[in-house]
Amino acid sequence: MDKFDANRRKLLALGGAALGVAILPSPAFATLSTPRPRILALNNLNTGESIKAEFFDGRGYIQEELARLDHFFRDYRSNKVRSIDPGLFDQLYRLQGLLGSRSPVQLISGYRSLDTNNELRAHRRGVAKKSYHTRGQAMDFHIEGVSLSNVRKAALSMRAGGVGYYPRSNFVHIDTGPVRHW
């Protein structure tokens, strides 16, 4: 009976939290629902490149800027480019809004070809066989001047996809897959 009551309390608490999220306006949601330009500034730590891209103009995505971001997020090992899910850029934009950060995002890993992913899997632990990186739906990064734990907390609060926390390697992973965390 105690186990049932504990599970029931958890379920009620989760339901109440979900109701609160549904009713109360979220700054992250407001950031996306307001029709204004969305701009990202990033540094690619592996290539030394920097980019500032206005990927959304307040009315729609700007295809030329998305193409520039696709190239920036390319698999630098094989120089292969893939279309990146614009939802990933939206997540990152929302995340910066939640954190109140204007610092450039430090990209560690964006798109990875299957060959690159398999090579990394052979030599490193924790590389998923069916990684969202290979689908153009994931990135590993940190933000200069923002603690990694705060980046993680903000990403988790968005409930917008996967969030991985790698403090020893100094990065957070986000993706546009199902909501989950590790």
TrEMBL record:
Keywords: Cell wall biogenesis/degradation, Hydrolase, Metal-binding, Metalloprotease, Protease, Signal, Zinc. It holds the Pfam family Peptidase_M15_2. The keyword Zinc applies. GO terms for biological process: cell wall organization; proteolysis. Pathway: Cell wall biogenesis; cell wall polysaccharide biosynthesis. GO terms for molecular function: metal ion binding; metallopeptidase activity. Transmembrane segments: none annotated. InterPro entries: MepK, TAT_signal, Zn_M74/Hedgehog-like. Its cofactor is Zn(2+). SUPFAM superfamilies: Hedgehog/DD-peptidase (SSF55166). Belongs to the peptidase M15 family. This is Murein endopeptidase K.
